[in-house]
Amino acid sequence: MRVLECTGAVPGAYCGKMLLDTGAEVVKLEPAGGDPLRSWSASGELGPDEHAPLFQFLAAGKRSVVCDAPAAHELIRGADLVIVDGTGGRDLAEARSCLAADDQTVLISITPFGTEGPYVEQGIQANEFILQALCGSIGGRGWPGEEPLQAGGRAGEWVAGAYAAFAAAAGLRRLRQTGFGDVFDVSIYEAMVVTMGGLSAVSASVLGDDAQMPGRSLEMPSIVPTADGLVGFCTITAQQFSDFLVLIERPDLLDDAELASFAGRVRRRAEFVDMVHAWAATRTTAEIVESASAMRIPVAPIGTPQTIAEIDQFQERGVFVKNALGHLQPRVPYRTSAFESRAPGKAPELGGDTGGVRWPARERVRRSGPAADARPLRGVRVADFTAFWAGPSATQLLAAFGADVVKIEGVRRPDGMRFSGGRAPSVEKWWEWGPVFLASNSDKRGITLELSDPRARDLALRVIGYSDVVIENFSPRVMANFRLEWPDIAEANPRTCMVRMPAFGLDGPWRDRVGFAQTMEQASGMAWMTGHADGPPIIPRGVCDPIAGLHAAFAAVIALETRDATGRGVHVESTMVEAALNVAAEALLEQAARGVTLRRDGNRGPDACPQGVYLTAEPDEWVAIAVTDDAQWPALAAVIGRPDLADDPDLGTRAARRTRAASIDEAIKSWAARLKVSGAVELLRAAGVPAARVMPPDALLSDEQLHARGFWEHIRHPVAGEFLSTGLPFRSRTVAAGWMRSAAPLFGQHNHQVLTEIGLGQSEIEGLEAGGVIASRPAGL
């Protein structure tokens, strides 16, 4: 596949890298001055002979062309896929005009808000920090009464790039099958709403006044100082928290109902934190990890730029490899025969391939009929053995793009997200109210199989026999216990592809450890980059689940393409933590290439100064501000009534302002404290300064940009009723009216339908119900 990358920021570059990693030919079409990432370093200005660490990672193996408009248009017309982000002198309008008469190319546009809507019309400027404020991420992180905090490391931009890569892969598959291209209009803001703030808004829509909206909070337990470092915990289930109390030698608290609830721990925060810290302070990180792992409590050492490559799991699996400059970087986060994992190449010299890329127009056969206007994965069948958020987010993407996804849940162990954050057990069918479950399983059919029963395994294999893809995200031992590993799948259906999503991998010393998104954030270095400079690391909160899901869904599409080419199914190991390591790579890259240890710094960031959140005259209402270029600085100084700051020659550059960031912050705080948040935002935007209200998550439900773009999906559920759910963060020319076509399935809702399709009669199905092999109600409830 020919990919033309006309971008100058992380999302488009990561989209191109993901495609390059699968074997695509990727050519960067650069302006004369080069991609802005060529001169970017998060740790400061580059020397004349230095390579930009992030650019080396994202551009390795790509080619570079600098040319005039006619030659650029020839490349655009010869490409299978064009990626545009509006930076570097290239814009969507130019690409559209070149492709208007063609319609045999897939076009990916990645911009902060998409290409239309009120925020676009108003010319609102935003970097990652402003988008985090808008999407509800910052507003939910921290303690009430204290400053809310960003998630460090620009995770939202990487997430948008992964969404773009999935859309690109699916669009290319449709192009190959039908001869018709597509246009995907990707919104970074919407990608961040889905993954970093929107689920709380869904909860508010589903549950109304009963929604659990605690405001700002931090997890307890989470990251704790040890005798020799830091360790991170995660207690998702009640059993895990009970086991944690036993771990810290406080079994006397097992019957303490208040402490067992998160709200109760918040009320007794000082007491709880003190006892955990006192226990951990006398033990090493390794000792704690060993003990917690033995009790199946999710746990990890805190990855730092200096230590992450030394973690035993990563060393044994060869997760970090040397690039062409001899510096460590994460390898491709898949193990599969679907595509070869190549050693990282060298980033191209600017214009080094000018005149050397010849892409004659493709000879495509257009296949008319329903498929030409269908969703890209129409006709694909998926057996979905996933649970919680990471796996279901992957299969929901496949379902939204047209696949027939059959979700398979245990009778005794349903998807745990059914029971999270919904109604009390006293409510009829309370397991149908989990907001995250409802938001992550739309468009699927649902059946139940008690896989501990041999009859259920046989039925599962029959479903697999009709499936193109099998996806699961259990710890490796679970599918082994069910005898549903790759050899079993391949024997049942040689043409099916299997995507496995283990937390840490199918081998290595951490193979059988329990891992959730929080664990990935702790181990990958994401948490290291989040928090106050003088405080402990803080997890970004959940983003690793959709990151893992996006990479797995992308890998599933690539696996299908390989299957179609070879006639045989393939096995893909798409490891959660390795996807996270790629997204969190920048800190390691800076350490390896420049010897600089990046770290958390509150709400400040390397691409803007000043940058922060400032309390306004209204209670707990904060305005987020980010001065992203030097031209905005005098405008900010004028707005806050401090022209003397603009006149100070020592503050003319971002680097200079960073040395006096504390005093600048004080000046902004004094100004913001006299205004309502809406007034502050209005004044700043009118002056061309990027700014936003720090949005509480439930306010997203009335956001004008999201509604104008049709982002919120109107769902009608037979138990939960009508509510708004997060959609997908892009619009497609071929999918005009929403991505979600049906609500998440009731427990066992499609048992009869699916089992009939695989050949069972009514009496057989009734016998399975009587024997507890299938059910329409979770066992024991």
Radius of gyration equals 26 Å
Oligomer: single chain
Distance between the termini: 52 Å
Which architecture of the domain at 2-199 and 335-364 per CATH?
3-Layer(aba) Sandwich
Give the helix tally.
Answer: 32
For the largest beta-sheet, the strand count, sense and barrel status come to: 7 strands, mixed
* Extended strand count: 24
Percent of residues in β-strands: 5-15%
Indicate the percent of residues in helices. 25-40%
CATH class type of the domain at 2-199 and 335-364: Alpha Beta
Query: In which order are the strands of the major sheet placed?
Result: 3-2-1-4-5-6-24
CATH superfamily of the domain at 2-199 and 335-364: Crotonobetainyl-coa:carnitine coa-transferase, domain 1
CATH topology of the domain at 2-199 and 335-364: Rossmann fold
Average residue-wise pLDDT: 94
Shape: globular
Which structural class do the helices and strands define? alpha/beta
Q: Which segments are poorly predicted (pLDDT under 50) over 5 or more consecutive residues?
A: none
